[in-house]
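Appendix B. Extra example for self-study. Work through it before the problem class; the solution is given directly after the inputs so you can check yourself.
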Amino acid sequence: MTDFDLENFLPYRLYQAAERASEGFHRIYGERFGLSRTEWRVLFNIGQYGPLSASALSKRAGFHKTQISRAVVRLENKRWVERVAGHDDRRTHDLTLTGEGKRNFQELTQLANEYSASLLSDFEHGDATSLLAQLRRIEACIAE
Amino acid sequence: MTDFDLENFLPYRLYQAAERASEGFHRIYGERFGLSRTEWRVLFNIGQYGPLSASALSKRAGFHKTQISRAVVRLENKRWVERVAGHDDRRTHDLTLTGEGKRNFQELTQLANEYSASLLSDFEHGDATSLLAQLRRIEACIAE
DNA sequence: ATGTAACCGTTGCGATTGTAACTATCAAGC
DNA sequence: GCTTGATAGTTACAATCGCAACGGTTACAT
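Solution. Structure tokens for the complete assembly:
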């Protein structure tokens, strides 16, 4: 008989924490901006690291290329994102935010900073940074 | 111009860590046991806390009731889970593992313990427990 | 007992997902 | 220039998801 504690099983605990945090943040931006979670993630990556191609985004963030392709279509329809055919490699498209996309991204980053602060409100600053560092260490543990 | 760092935005970092960890563990049990992630989560909750009803499971783990309903159907078809109509309240069904379900659950908990250990291999014991505690604190921050 | 409201779990539906196949483009060898 | 193999991104398909509606059961007030 093994002793096993589901609540302290790291993948389960991470899933629960991530699910709650994503859901909580979605409640803030979801209705107001009409974005799904995946759209949000794609938008933020483009806003933060763009212009970049879909495959670069896929490598960076680990998203599936179909997920990106479809999220970009939706963001393009909202006129928040533009695709410009790469002139070095015409298979790729550089993804960038439009003016409206940038404005919304700005607003969203403010909401994000506020939400992050509220989640970590009773954390010491050092605890918060060490938590983030630990999460990165765990991610690094896992082969692609 | 706000300064915002996606990599240190907690919901994003949590999502990434959870995704990698779930995917990594899925690579271990997925093929061998033929389980999806949601099936795994339902199975483990029944194994750890069963017998319990679907709604009790939903409250405990925060899963959607349709997710549970469908996962239970699949686990029942594998003869790993049994549903017994509650005799106090005949709307509910007590979910329990069958003999075979228990055997597989045992094997899976061992794999889970090994995987958890490998993820935390270069963590001090104290760091690991504090990480789990911090995750729970964050979850507690979020209203249902 | 009877009606009303609340609850449990299932199912239909539209939306979203990943896998696999596809088109288009590029790079390398000859 | 032409073929071969790899890569970028889209699309078809089946599976899964959450929402809403449903049938069946319970609790409670009248």
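Self-check: The longest helix of chain A spans residues 10-33. If your reasoning did not lead you there, revisit section 3.
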